[in-house]
Amino acid sequence: MVTYELSDTDVDRIFQALADATRRDIVSRTLTDELSVTALAGRYDMSFAAVQKHVAVLERATLVVKRRRGREQMVQANPEAVRRAARLLDAYEKIWHDRAERIGDLLSDTTKGTEQ
Amino acid sequence: MTVISTNKDVDNLTFTIVAEFDAGPEAVWQVWENPRLLERWRGPPTWPATFEKLEFAPGGDARYYMSGPDGEKARGWWKIVSMDAPRRFAFDDGFAGDDGKPLDPDDTTRCEVTLAEDGNVTRMTSVTTFRSAEQLEQMVEMGMEEGTIGAMGQIDAVLADVRVGS
């Protein structure tokens, strides 16, 4: 059995956090640059408090880290957590690739069987 | 066999695979309908699936288990929710306890399979919808053994034959 570094709850939090367009946008913007919550709030048509809430959801899911710089709260994405979410779906993709391969083999066996 | 495309949708927790087989839709339908054929591809070689029951009809039930290398059994069940043979069907797939009964009837993944005939090939589209990431992780754990030790020879074959992407 495969073991993951994250608990089930952690994984659930990551997917729930990513299931929102604004939050995905915050993650992608802060992957390259550390941005303040104020700077982020200026980019969306929503209140500072609403953006702060989105950042808090991302922080609980470990997708971003927050630190204080003077009076500002700075936000930076955690690329490792983003990769973990993608890795799970990659693993599932592999399972289906293998299944399709076995169906293909089975169908060519079945065809050969009928010809004999 | 060619995998035409796969699509992973993190927003909606769905996974889609489109594959083409050099066979008619009736033959591809058989690999789902006939439990002895289904057992030959559903699980990886190290975790083969055994279908104790398969009522391949609308509203039908299936009971199965996957046997692990140390003799452990992971049990599951299906409920066929719709069917239009030999073109499409959908089923819910869930985990079962040692008695074969569903652990939680609402904790299911939905799998929708469509077969389309195109000349000499049949295109199979399978869409799996997960209810949570936790469920996706459990599914991955049940099916991952092959990627580690199982069929290294098969992996070579996959690399040689499969053209990924569209």
From TrEMBL, chain A:
Family annotation (InterPro entries): ArsR-like_HTH, HTH_ArsR_DNA-bd_dom, WH-like_DNA-bd_sf, WH_DNA-bd_sf
Entry-linked Gene3D superfamilies: Winged helix-like DNA-binding domain superfamily/Winged helix DNA-binding domain
GO MF annotations, alphabetized: DNA-binding transcription factor activity
SMART domains reported in the protein's UniProt record: HTH_ARSR
Residue stretches making up the HTH arsR-type domain: 3-97
Protein name (record): ArsR family transcriptional regulator
UniProtKB/TrEMBL annotation, chain B:
Residue ranges constituting the Activator of Hsp90 ATPase homologue 1/2-like C-terminal domain according to the UniProt record: 23-159
Protein family according to the UniProt entry: Belongs to the AHA1 family.
Name of the protein in its database record: SRPBCC domain-containing protein
Entry-linked InterPro entries: ASHA1/2-like_C, START-like_dom_sf
A Pfam family it matches: AHSA1
Protein source organism: Mycetocola manganoxydans
